[in-house]
Every structure is written in structure tokens, then in C-alpha cells.
Amino acid sequence: MSTLQLPRSLAFALLLTGAVALGGCAHRPTNAQLGTGVGAVAGGLVGNAVFGSTLGTVGGAAAGALIGNEVGRDNDRGYDRGHGRRR
């Protein structure tokens, strides 16, 4: 009977990934964090559709993440959209 042997680096990577994933469940993410994630995915999809290359995908993801973070951060601060004042 054979046993599955994982290289130490792969086992460590899996352990670290699991710990980070479980750590994310500890609290509700802020709007800035959600905006960053959603913006990165949307920007990557748009960048790939427009440019059709890896560079376009990565560039779109980076731009989307920045924009999503800013929009989410404004929502976290409680700014009224379009008027620039606090709610």
C-alpha cells in the first residue's frame, strides 16, 4: 500500500493557505476590502476582454483593485455620494 508524500514546501503552502483562509472568517470585511476584491476581479475580466493578453488582465486587475478600494473606503467613511459630505 502506498502513501501520498507531499514535498515539504507544498505542505507548508497548503497549511499557510488554510490558515489565511480561516483567518479571513474571523471578522466581517470592510467595504474597502470587498471593493478591492470585486474591483480586481472585474478589472481583470475587462482587461482580458479588451486587450486579450496577460498584461491586460493584470493591468485591469490592478486598476480595478485601486478603484474598488477607493470606492469602498469612501463608503466606510460614510461619505454621501455626489455631495462629498458625511452622512
Please characterize this protein's 3D structure.
This protein has helices at 8-23, 31-51, 54-77. It is mainly alpha-helical. It starts with 7 loop residues before the first helix and ends in a 10-residue tail after the last helix. Helix 2 (31-51) packs antiparallel against helix 3 (54-77).
Short overview:
The chain is mainly α and 87 residues long. It has three helices and no strands.
Blueprint (SSEs and pairs):
Layout: H1 8-23, H2 31-51, H3 54-77
Helix/strand structural class: mainly alpha
What is the subunit organization of this protein?
Answer: single chain
* Low-confidence runs: none
Instruction: Give Rg in angstroms.
Output: 19 Å
Tally of individual helices:
3
Q: How much helix is in the residues?
A: over 70%
Describe the biggest sheet? none
Give the amount of beta strand, in percent: under 5%
Order of helices and strands: HHH
**Shape, please?**
flat
Highlighted features:
flat, mainly alpha
